[in-house]
């Protein structure tokens, strides 16, 4: 893996991941699963053991256990999410449809990602009072972004706004991880080799 490419884009594309979940009769898209996992990891849920997988199965699989290859894929995504949130080069990326897809489709996936992030976050963090002012503001903003109207004009301004929101969510997820998740996930390792 090259140093300047984000780990998540090397490992998973939105389409491949969504198709994989569909093949295994899961109703969640790649964006939703990544959003929940990011919210869980960033808010301090440990990805050691299987407790987090049981919690995830309650959230996206009606409490049914995952097939072995789904479990393996989810573990890989969780480890990769952890590593990219730790990345000193800020390599964390949201798993969303490619920039070539129509804007409404990307916005739909974006709102699904942020709604899912809030679910994953809320499983671990119910008391916002202990959070820094910056993180409380970011969570409040995420709640507003989750309500976005996705019927927009497909123009340059809407396109620019979309990229600004994606970047804001990316930075907010890293802020959340730095404040809450990093210490809880002591097994998190970055994919980078420090020289």
Q: What does this molecule look like?
A:
There is one protein chain. This protein is an all-alpha fold and 195 residues long. It has one domain (7-184): Up-down Bundle (Four Helix Bundle (Hemerythrin (Met), subunit A)), CATH 1.20.120.740. Helix content is 62%, strand content 0%. The chain contains 8 helices and no strands. The protein is globular and about 45 Å long. The two termini are 16 Å apart. The model is unreliable at 1-10 and 191-195 (pLDDT under 50). One of its GO terms (cellular component) is cytosol. This is YecA family protein. Belongs to the UPF0149 family. It comes from Pseudidiomarina insulisalsae.
- What CATH calls the topology is Four Helix Bundle (Hemerythrin (Met), subunit A)
Q: Write down the overall mean pLDDT.
A: 85
Q: What is the terminal separation in angstroms?
A: 16 Å
Structural class: mainly alpha
The CATH architecture would be Up-down Bundle
CATH superfamily: YgfB uncharacterised protein family PF03695
The Rg value, from CA coordinates, equals: 16 Å
Low-confidence stretches: 1-10, 191-195
The major β-sheet equals: none
- Helix content, binned percent: 55-70%
Q: What's the structural domain tally?
A: 1
Q: Overall 3D geometry?
A: globular
Strand residue percentage = under 5%
Number of helices: 8
What's the order of the H and E elements? HHHHHHHH
* Count of extended strands: 0
InterPro entries: YgfB-like, YgfB-like_sf
Organism: Pseudidiomarina insulisalsae
Family: Belongs to the UPF0149 family.
Pfam families: UPF0149
